[in-house]
Amino acid sequence: MRNTRVGAGICLIVGALGLSAPAAVAATGPAAEPSIRISPGRATPGSQVTVSTKACGKETYGKGTSEVGGAFHLFAGERKGTLVGVFEIPEGTVARTDTVIVKCPPRIMITDTYRIADRVQSGGGAPSGGHTPSGGVDAGFGAPTDKGTQLAAGSVLLAGALAGGVVRMRRRVSPVGA
Length: 178
What we know:
Layout: H1 2-27, E1 36-39, E2 42-43, E3 48-53, E4 61-66, E5 70-76, E6 83-88, E7 96-104, E8 108-116, H2 147-173
Parallel strand pairs: 2-8
Antiparallel strand pairs: 1-3, 3-6, 4-5, 4-7, 5-6, 7-8
């Protein structure tokens, strides 16, 4: 009777892992990459912003629009399958979030946002808002680029939990004198 319960438990765990495998594989495919890469993620007035995407597939041309920078074109970049476009943020633009829309034939439309920060003052000081943040403060813009490592670490944790459960169940089942 006990073996039936252990077998049923193992089947449930293996089934749950089996059902999650297609989602894990899909997360590491091309759709897992950010649709648009906007560089820099925190731009200043007067600077150029570069927009690149792989979402257009084999297309060699795309159109983009920025609320602040206006319309721009995307052309084939240095890497195969990547389109790249550049636009400039006008001087005098106030700090805010800007939305970029990229359109590719036949019917692909991707939207993303980035921050426009205050310009650093000529004395080397910080923007009018106080100090200039850096490092982890800039985190949170876009999707993580290394999901494979995250999935591997999660799998190791699940395997460890499963092994611990098996060891515990085996100790319970084995006779005291063994």
